[in-house]
């Protein structure tokens, strides 16, 4: 086994197996654990009931994000404003109590570093290449963008990790998604991952870990890689990752929780050894030509329901599978769309730029670039830009992006998950459409009856300007 | 966790594919800090449809749910499993499940049974009028019409379910092996061992 060529996933897996049972289940060590307020209270409560401790508190980082309102958190004299929803307030209070009780590092709701767990982890250098990273949230796959094996877990597993710093897992199959060539102008990492999900389907990656390979990913920024890996779960894969390289190391160096000095040098040497070996076998491979990827939007209620912006709403009969035809009919009914309608003619009333998929500084810049000197269309009733963390917000403000966004007519908010899942007050009204940079267009995801079209930040900004889904290239070329 | 052996009773013939966890339990129900009471929010958007199967009194408290491919895709929320339990569902039968959901279901003693679509179609038909029975020991699903379908289950999961084992307790018993791993990690990957102080 020592000489057998291995994939990136297999190398990380092998380095973390504590032991393997006869039935093939392995006990796997977890290096980094992120905790937020929604999926952790029952886990801490279970520890308390059983009188169990957290095995390695220093390997867990807690930060609230899902429930927090994105309106001001402090009054003008700097006092904390209460959260109006009593249940949200209670959930936040539980995390504020649990973190210190179990000696876990906590970034509070009003701290400068607060943000969405999947933005905060890489930004702080907590998420590292070659590490196993978990969080009670399926978009944990995002951290694969720094070359980590990262995946979402349920609350029972959160409890298991807190108590034992391990998980009982079965080895996954490996899926290579290779994209060669170059993305065209106006085509972003978001368009690429939507296109990939369209090819794989929403269950195409079930049972697999995806490794994204090829020229496109090798040249991509870490932030864009985080966007790609983030949505692996929308193709059914619990995890997706990209080999760490010089771009990754340059991104991580000097971050507050990243290794320093001698540790840094040792770490980089190990990280370099993790790339998939020549000749390593994947269980499945797909190839995509980057030149085929257009700015992409969704028309339905599953992330696999994608079409290029130049396309039309599909007819149910255009799908071979009869049960998919039924699903499409239901989707189109929910979405209020008629087959054959050009996507460009679909009017939107709401804009959401944010979420763990697209709320980093690169995303803020892409949106502001389109909005610069333009005004939001009268169709738009509500449009918010929600930076992924306090640090992203501060950086954007230092660059004057907030002014461009506000002058265009969108609101500039405090960091959090916000209208991606509408747990806090940010919701899309029933029957209305939203051009959204988030990750799920499920029924009711952005509020009961809300109709979501997933797009890139530049495409969301373009839709804000024209009041309909728009090819951003018409505004930028 | 209660040991699982036989699950018998009415089976809700839902049958839909790609049922995501936002459909099983919408996000606004996730603000709870306990595991109880989520059945009220289960399948909320489906229950808004006229004549939906979940509001049919015939299936109230049914212990089995029959669904289509890729059941439980999307979010990792374990609230989806808790909501099913609170409805009285102890087993879900479908052609396939999302990885995270099936793990969450298992950890709550909910049996996930994979059967081919033709057998699902047959069960959907039978379930409208008759009960269905699942036996974990023999790994079979049977109906009063002599249908007998066998299913695969991971041996570790079967063991834990049939004994009602607490996984955290099992792993805590492996303390020495974990401590060994930690020692070699401190030597070889020291930056990973350090983490962050509270």
Task: Give an account of the 3D structure.
The complex is a heterodimer of chains A (477) and B (198). Chain A is α/β, with parallel strands linked by helices. Helix content of chain A is 32%, strand content 16%. Chain A has 3 domains: 8-169, Aconitase, domain 3 (2-Layer Sandwich), CATH 3.30.499.10; 173-243 and 270-292, 3-Layer(aba) Sandwich (Aconitase, Domain 2); 296-476, 2-Layer Sandwich (Aconitase, domain 3), CATH 3.30.499.10. Chain A contains 16 helices and 19 strands. In chain A, the strands form 5 sheets. A 5-stranded parallel sheet of chain A has the order 5-4-3-6-7, sandwiched between helices. Chain A has a 5-stranded parallel sheet with strand order 17-16-15-18-19. In chain A, strands 11-10-9-12 form a 4-stranded parallel sheet. In chain A, β13 and β14 form a beta hairpin. In chain A, α12 runs parallel beside α15. Chain A is globular, with a radius of gyration of 22 Å. The termini of chain A are far apart. Helix content of chain B is 36%, strand content 14%. Chain B contains 9 helices and 8 strands. At the A-B interface, α2, α3, β5, α5 and α10 of A face α4, α6, α7, α8 and α9 of B.
N to C succession of SSEs of chain B: EEHHEHEHEHEEEHHHH
Percent of residues of chain A in helical segments? 25-40%
Please outline the major beta sheet of chain A.
5 strands, parallel
Low-confidence stretches of chain A: none
Number of strands of chain A: 19
End-to-end span of chain B in angstroms?
33 Å
Report the total helices of chain B. 9
Strand order of the largest sheet of chain A: 5-4-3-6-7
């Amino acid at each position: 086994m020592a000489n057998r060529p291995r994939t990136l996933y297999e190398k990380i897996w092998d380095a973390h197996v504590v032991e393997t049972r006869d039935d093939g289940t392995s006990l796997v060590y977890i290096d980094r654990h992120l905790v937020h307020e929604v999926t952790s209270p029952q886990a801490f409560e279970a520890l308390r009931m059983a009188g169990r401790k957290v095995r390695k508190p220093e390997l867990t980082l807690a930060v609230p994000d899902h429930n927090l309102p994105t309106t001001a958190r402090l009054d003008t004299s700097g006092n904390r404003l209460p959260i109006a929803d009593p249940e949200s307030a209670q959930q936040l209070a539980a995390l504020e109590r649990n973190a210190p009780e179990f000696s876990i590092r906590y970034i509070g709701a009003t701290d400068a570093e607060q943000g969405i767990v999947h933005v905060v982890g890489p930004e702080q250098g907590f998420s590292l290449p070659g590490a196993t990273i978990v969080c009670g949230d399926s978009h944990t796959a995002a951290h694969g963008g720094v070359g980590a094996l990262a995946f979402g877990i349920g609350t029972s597993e959160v409890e298991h990790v807190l108590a034992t710093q391990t998980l009982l897992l079965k080895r996954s199959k490996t899926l290579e998604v290779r994209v060669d060539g170059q993305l065209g102008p106006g085509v972003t990492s978001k368009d690429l991952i939507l296109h990939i999900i369209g090819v794989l389907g929403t269950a195409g990656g079930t049972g697999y870990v995806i490794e994204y390979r090829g020229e496109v990913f090798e040249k991509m920024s870490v932030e864009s890689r985080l966007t790609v890996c983030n949505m692996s779960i929308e193709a059914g894969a619990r995890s997706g990752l990209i080999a760490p390289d010089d771009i990754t190391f340059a991104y991580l160096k000097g971050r507050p929780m990243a290794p320093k000095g001698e540790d840094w040098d040792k770490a980089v040497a190990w990280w370099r050894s993790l790339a998939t070996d020549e000749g390593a076998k994947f269980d499945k491979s797909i190839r995509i030509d980057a030149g085929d990827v257009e700015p992409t939007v969704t028309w339905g209620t599953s992330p696999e329901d994608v079409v290029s912006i130049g396309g039309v709403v599909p007819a149910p009969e255009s799908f071979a599978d009869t049960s998919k035809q039924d699903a499409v009919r239901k989707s189109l009914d929910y979405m209020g769309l008629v087959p054959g309608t050009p996507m460009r003619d679909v009017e939107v009333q709401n804009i959401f730029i944010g979420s763990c998929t697209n709320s980093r500084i690169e995303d803020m810049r892409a949106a502001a670039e389109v909005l610069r000197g333009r005004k939001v269309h009268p169709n738009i009733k509500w449009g918010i830009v929600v930076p992924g963390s306090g640090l992203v917000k501060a950086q954007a403000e230092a660059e004057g992006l907030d002014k461009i966004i506000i002058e265009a007519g969108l609101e500039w908010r405090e960091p959090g998950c916000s209208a991606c899942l509408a747990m806090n007050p940010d919701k899309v009204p029933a029957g209305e459409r939203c051009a959204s940079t988030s990750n799920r267009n499920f029924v009711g995801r952005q509020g009961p009856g809300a109709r979501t079209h997933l797009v890139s930040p530049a495409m969301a900004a373009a839709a804000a300007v024209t009041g309909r889904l728009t090819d951003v290239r018409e505004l930028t070329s | 966790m209660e040991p699982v052996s036989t699950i018998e009773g009415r089976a809700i013939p839902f049958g839909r594919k790609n049922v995501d966890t936002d459909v099983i339990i919408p996000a606004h129900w996730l603000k709870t800090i306990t595991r109880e009471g989520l059945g009220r929010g289960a399948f909320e958007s489906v229950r808004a449809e006229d004549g939906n199967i979940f509001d049919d009194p015939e299936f109230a408290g049914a212990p089995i749910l029959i669904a289509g491919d890729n059941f439980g895709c999307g979010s990792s929320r374990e609230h989806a499993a808790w909501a099913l339990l609170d409805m009285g569902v102890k087993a879900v039968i479908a052609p396939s499940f999302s990885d995270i959901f099936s793990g969450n279901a298992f950890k709550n003693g909910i049996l996930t049974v994979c059967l081919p679509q033709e057998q699902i179609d047959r069960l959907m038909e039978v379930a409208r009028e008759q009960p269905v029975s699942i036996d974990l020991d023999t790994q079979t699903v049977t109906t009063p019409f002599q249908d007998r379908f066998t299913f695969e289950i991971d041996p570790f999961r079967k063991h834990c379910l049939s004994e009602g084992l607490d996984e955290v307790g099992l792993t805590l018993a492996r303390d020495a092996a974990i401590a060994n791993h930690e020692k070699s990690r401190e030597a070889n990957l020291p930056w990973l061992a350090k983490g962050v102080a509270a």
